[in-house]
Amino acid sequence: MAVAGLLAQVSTAQKLDRTIKPKPGPAPVINIKDPVVYKLSNGITVLVVQDNKLPKVSASYSIDAGPITEGDKAGVIDLLSGMLNEGTSTRTKQEFSAEVAKMGAEVKLSAYGGSASALTRFFPQAFLLMSSALRNPSFDPAAFEKLKSIMITNLKSSERNGKAVSGRVVNAIVYGLDHPLGEFATDKTVGALKIEDLKEIYQKYITPSRGYLTIVGDIKPSEAKALAIQAFGDWKGTTLSYPKLALVGAPAKTEVDVVDLPNLVQSEITLVNLIDLPLSSPDYHAVLLANEILGGGADSKLFRNLREKHAFTYGAYSKVGAGRTQTTFNASASVRNEKVDSAVVEMVREINVMRSEKVDPQVLQNTKNYYNGSFALGLETTSRSASFASNILINDLPKDFYRTYLQKINAVTPEDILRVSKKYFSADNAKIVIVGKAEKFVPGLKAAGFIVKGYDKNAMPVKGL
After folding, report:
1. DSSP string of 328-370?
2. Cβ-proximal residues to 191 (8 Å cutoff; 6+ apart), any chain
3. For residues 453 and 450, what is the distance between their CA atoms, to the nearest angstrom?
4. Which of 1-10, 49-58, 226-235, 278-287 is predicted least confidently?
5. Which helix (H) or strand (E) holds 36?
6. DSSP code of 323?
7. 390 SS3 class
8. What is the pLDDT of residues 9-20, one digit of tens each?
9. Does the N terminus or the C terminus of the chain have fewer Cβ atoms within 10 A?
């Protein structure tokens, strides 16, 4: 009987046609555990997900302040983040760090909140340390001067680094220097900061207003709530409102904005256009897939063109933002100076193909398969369910947004990809910001018909290119 069964299996295997790919299975069924949600009297929303698999608990407190305008005090938020990790009014930094280390815990603070993680038996102490650091920072003058000096040194040392310069001037050129998403710190703005500036911004933005506290791990919801009340229940502060930002307009025609850094051997190219894409948009899932096809990884159109076909770069990518404020679609690559003009032409070409031709159904299906797998894999992390819940609250999304996530991904058609590519990916009224050795590529870009403008390292217009 055993021999007969084996022969039957061999016979069946011989009938399989290995040249035909098996059809993908259905999208995984999403079962997301809802957190227990509490609301403290001071406005803090507490989300608790109990998970007893490991004897560990993690918590994070985030302040939904939105984009903060720093103006002539650019850098104050980053400096405040550093200061919040410099001890409390009752503990020096050394004493604070020693207590954390003694528990084998991890405690971090920033101007947007804080986090604590520890074994279950040490979590209450670690959590209370985090809350005390957030609520009662030391604002030690010596620590302030030390952090300020380090920040100035780092800013000065980055002035000849192409990626660092590109990282700050791209948004400045796209949004404008007077926009909270376009401003950036310089050694001059940081050098002018005083400790009173940090105290002022602290009083304004470090508050229970618009606060979200997520607690995940080996803890009962009732215990987590009691601990949250102990740490934050009597906390009072200013009332925040989410800022309303004026929309920034796009150029009438695509322009190339060049920052000349003659010391660079390769240039940083970033093609950017502004978009509005809230998570609640019916286009959201199609845009994610379209971006993945265009520049999401090593199998994308940009990567295959600029790296595999032309060897212009080690990698070319695109990404798309989404949320409550105006955001960006961008495509980027680091390219040797002599090939910048050709790389820009190819980048624009691939974007225009996305906007004019339907994507191959198999390419779309492969991309869906990737999203199905990666999304399902991410659900193995318990904290994801808490982050999903806070996203739903913050973005005013339907309660089933993440439960139906893969259904919406798998419902996207080639026609949808073409439609959203036309709407969100533009090479007609974009800004192409290039940081590099201008003399190597500006003539070629002008010959290709691009409008070329010059900027300095601080995103201020210059003439002569």
Report:
1. EEEEEEEEEGGGHHHHHHHHHHHHHHHHHSPPPHHHHHHHHHH
2. 148, 152
3. 10
4. 1-10
5. strand 36-39
6. S
7. helix
8. 545 555 667 677
9. N
Helix (H, G, I), strand (E, B) or coil at 315: coil
Q: What is the token pair recorded at 181?
A: 């998403």
Bridge partner residues of 38 (DSSP): 46
The Cα 389–Cα 33 span in angstroms is 10
Task: Evaluate whether 377 touches 328 at the Cβ level (below 8 Å).
Answer: no
Which of 374, 435, 351, 441 lies closest to 168, judged by CA? 435
Residue with more model confidence, 334 or 7: 334
**Which residues are CB-contacts of 274 (< 8 A; sequence separation ≥ 6)?**
174, 175, 248, 250, 326, 327, 328
Residue 245's Cβ-count burial label (10 Å; 0-12, 13-18, 19+) is middle
Contact 93, 144 (CB under 8 A): no
Q: What is the 3-class SS of 288-313, one letter each residue? A: HHHHHHHHCCCCCHHHHHHHHHCCCC
- First and final C-alpha spacing in the chain: 84
* Residue 201, token pair as written in the block: 């911004």
Closest by CA to 184, choosing from 202, 193, 170, 172, is 172
Quote the pTM value.
0.90
Phi, psi of 96 (to 5 degrees): -65, -50
For position 161, what pLDDT does the model report?
96
36-39, strands of its sheet edge to edge: 36-39, 45-50, 211-217, 56-63, 113-119, 106-110
Q: Are strands 56-63 and 461-462 parallel, antiparallel or unpaired?
A: unpaired
Q: Could you tell me if 386 and 35 are in contact, meaning their C-beta atoms sit under 8 angstroms apart?
A: yes
User: What is the sign of the dihedral through the CA atoms of 382, 386, 389 and 390?
Assistant: negative
For the beta carbon of residue 200, count every other beta carbon within 10 angstroms.
14
Angle between helices 284-295 and 414-424 (to 10 degrees): 80
Instruction: Work out the percent of the chain whose per-residue pLDDT is above 70.
Output: 94
Cα→Cα distances 260→169, 170, 330, 439, Å: 12, 14, 21, 8
Q: How many CA atoms lie within 13 A of 284 on its CB side?
A: 18
Q: Report CA dihedral (178, 181, 186, 192) to the nearest 10 degrees.
A: 60
Rounded to whole angstroms, the Cα distance separating 102 from 99 reads 5
Residue 233 one-letter amino acid: G
